[in-house]
Amino acid sequence: MTIPKHVRTMLQSIRDKFALEPLQDRMLPNDSDFTTLRPVRKASAGSIAKYWARLMSASTASEEDRVALTDDVTNPEVFNGNIENFIGTVKVPVGIIGPLRINGLHAHGDYHVPMATTEAALVASYARGAYAASKAGGISTAMLYEGVIRTPAFVLESLLDAGRFVEWIVSHVDRLEKAAEATTGYGKLISVEPMIDNNVVFLVCRYTTGDAAGQNMVTIATDALCREIAGECTVPIQNWYIEGNFSGDKKASFLGLVTGRGRKVSASVTLPAAVVERTLGTTVSDMLAYGQVANLGSHLSGQLGAQAHFANGLAAVYIATGQDAACVAESAMGITRMEARGEDLFCSVTMPNILVGSVGGGTGLPSQSAGLNILGLKGEGKAAALAEVVAATCLCGEISIVAAIAAGDFTRAHEKLARHR
C-alpha cells in the first residue's frame, strides 16, 4: 500500500516534533495548582479592571489590548483591508474562561480563552467545563493533520477527454506545483487529487498554509495553477471554474468529515468521578446514560458526526480572535466520545476542520489582536497551538452541556442567566 505524500509529510512533522522535545510527559495530566476565575454575573468597572489586571499578568495582553477591547476604535483606516463600505463596528460582548489547562503537542500551559457572544449562559457553561477539565489535570491535545483545499472544476468534451486530461495533470504536476507556490511565500501544494464525473473533472488541491487560515492564499494559488493548465494542457478544455463547490468551503460535507479541510485536532481528558460530582453536579453514570441517547439522536437525524454544540464554542472564539466566522459551518463537524474508564469518565472530541490562523485575515485588527494576545497566540508559529486551544475549548462545552442535561439543570441555568437575569 502506498501512503500519499501529504500524509507522509504530516506524520513526519509529528514525529519530528516528538524528536525535538522531551514530550513523553507533555501530554499527561498536570495536577499543579491553579487559581480559577471567579464568575461575575453583573459586570462593573471594578470587575473588568480585576480581570484585565489578571490577564496582563498571566498572558501577553497589554494596556493597548485592554483599550482595543473596551473602547471604540476611532481610526477607520485600520479596517481598510477587511471591509468595504465601512460605516462602523459592532460591539459583541467578550467574556473570558480559564485558566484552561492544556497538555498538548503544540499548546501547553494554562490559557485564558476569550469568547465573544450575545448568548447568556454560554460563557458560564464553558467556564464550568474548563474548571472541571483543569481540576482533572488538563486536556491532552494534538493537531493530527492540516490541509486547506480548493477544488477547481474542468469541463471536457467527453469521458475519454476527461481521462486524457487527468493523465496530463499527473504528468505535469511538478509544473503545477511551481505555478501555485509562486504566488505565496507560505503556502505549499501537497497534493492534487482528481475526481472524475464523466466529462467533468474536479481537482482536489490541498495546501498547507503556514500560520494563516489560508482561504485567500489557496484561492490565489489555485487560480495560478488553473491558468497554467488552461494555457498548456493539450486536451481541449471547454470551461473551467476556480471552485467546483466540491471542497466543502463553509459547508458541512462528508469530504470534510473524512479527509479534513483545515487543521484536524483531537482533544481528551479523563474526569475522575469525584470531579464530575463536585464540579458538574451529576454522576458519571448519568452522563453516560444521556450520552447514549444523544448519540442515537445524532444518528437518527443524519448529522455529519456526533456532537452536542461545537458551533457555540467555535463561533465565540472565532469572533474573539479574528477568524472567518462563516467557517463555523464546516468547522462544527466531528465526534464527541464519552466512555467509562473504571469509575471515571473519558471525554474526547475529534474535529477535522478547524480553520484558524494566528496571522492574516482579521487577526491584525485591534480587538481581535487583543483576543489572540490574551491567549498568547498571536503571530508566526502559533496557529497549530491555536487550533488545539479551540478543540480543547469545544471539549469543555461538550462536558458542561452533557452534565447539565443529565442533571436536569439545563433549563434552570438558562432561566437564571438569560431569561430571568
Automatic annotation (TrEMBL):
<dbReference type="GO" id="GO:0004420">
    <property type="term" value="F:hydroxymethylglutaryl-CoA reductase (NADPH) activity"/>
</dbReference>
<dbReference type="Pfam" id="PF00368">
    <property type="entry name" value="HMG-CoA_red"/>
</dbReference>
<comment type="similarity">
    <text>Belongs to the HMG-CoA reductase family.</text>
</comment>
<dbReference type="InterPro" id="IPR009023">
    <property type="entry name" value="HMG_CoA_Rdtase_NAD(P)-bd_sf"/>
</dbReference>
<dbReference type="InterPro" id="IPR023076">
    <property type="entry name" value="HMG_CoA_Rdtase_CS"/>
</dbReference>
<dbReference type="InterPro" id="IPR009029">
    <property type="entry name" value="HMG_CoA_Rdtase_sub-bd_dom_sf"/>
</dbReference>
<protein>
    <recommendedName>
        <fullName>hydroxymethylglutaryl-CoA reductase (NADPH)</fullName>
        <ecNumber>1.1.1.34</ecNumber>
    </recommendedName>
</protein>
<dbReference type="InterPro" id="IPR002202">
    <property type="entry name" value="HMG_CoA_Rdtase"/>
</dbReference>
<keyword id="KW-0521">NADP</keyword>
<dbReference type="InterPro" id="IPR023074">
    <property type="entry name" value="HMG_CoA_Rdtase_cat_sf"/>
</dbReference>
<keyword id="KW-0560">Oxidoreductase</keyword>
<dbReference type="InterPro" id="IPR004554">
    <property type="entry name" value="HMG_CoA_Rdtase_eu_arc"/>
</dbReference>
<dbReference type="GO" id="GO:0008299">
    <property type="term" value="P:isoprenoid biosynthetic process"/>
</dbReference>
<dbReference type="GO" id="GO:0015936">
    <property type="term" value="P:coenzyme A metabolic process"/>
</dbReference>
